[in-house]
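Before the break, one more example. Copy the sequence into your notebook; we will annotate it together after we see the structure.
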Amino acid sequence: MKNLVALSIGLLGICCLAISLYASEEITCKSPDGKFALRCNYADSQPYNGATTLVELPSHKPVLSLNPNWTLGQVKLVWSPDSQRVAYFAESSKDYPTRIFQRSGSSFNEIELPELPSPKLPENALQSDADTNTRVEAIRWTGPRELLLEKELQNRAWGRAALKITLGFGQDNRPVIRKSEQEKVSIIDYFLLLPPEDFEAPLAAWLRMMRGNDYFPCDTKPEHNIDEKNGYMYCRGDGAQPEFEVALFRYRDGRPLLALCAGELEGTDSVQLQFFELGAEGKMHAIARSILPGGDLKFDPQMGYEKDGSQFYLPRKGRTIVVRSEKTKKTLRKFTWNGEKFQQEK
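Here is what the structure looks like once it is written out:
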């Protein structure tokens, strides 16, 4: 009798443990035809272990186990328009891989990807550096048989390099590389080269937040925090890091000038403004001189332009920095970049 009670208690404990391991469930990333979706189960306490599964709808019947040892992080499915192919992308501790699956009736088979080319690295990069993280993300299907990927390498020592890769799928479903294009150096690259000691977490972590910090991006609207074309980035920060924004200006010869505007941790936004230039060793360095005309703005060689009853607003588009009164929000000054220097508008 004692053995029976002990066995019952043991089974009950196992049952309760299983329930606690997967206390939360998300159904996300439905296929265009509405027949399949991604199911994410995870514990409600650290380390948030769980599993990801492709399931049928509306029954939630498992079709394919994607990762039985998943830990809560960003995850998504990117479906082809005809629901016949799907890309699975999941965040991991170091690398961010993408897997591709082909539909066969009510089941799915994994398609082996070809060896993807790597982007050309900056001149100061070390080829064998073990601290380099690789991210291969499915961006979108440009047709039923064509998928756009981004392959990105990141390293805190030298920054970032990335490729846009187009995969095509023939009648035999074998993927071939149709196009591979190196991404131009952008505001993202220069941001990752800023002095890391100026931030409360690694720069790569803030980039992840700006790209979208939701675990299930299929269910959220894009935040549009990064505008590479116009050279603008915004980060809302967290409990230790105040919000900040970054804007890229360029000299006429193409050299970058990066502006970083930050707020107070528990105070006013946009009250500190610093400028950075690219050094010979490939890192961004703070400019220790005032480059905004007029001598009435408070400037510190170490901190840049600091709070003095004013707030700075970087341009989401264009080349004009606006200074407003912290109290009245009235525009006090405008500084426009002309490719050589800032000029104050009258």
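The mean pLDDT is 88. The two ends are 93 Å apart (CA to CA). Try to locate both features in your own notes.
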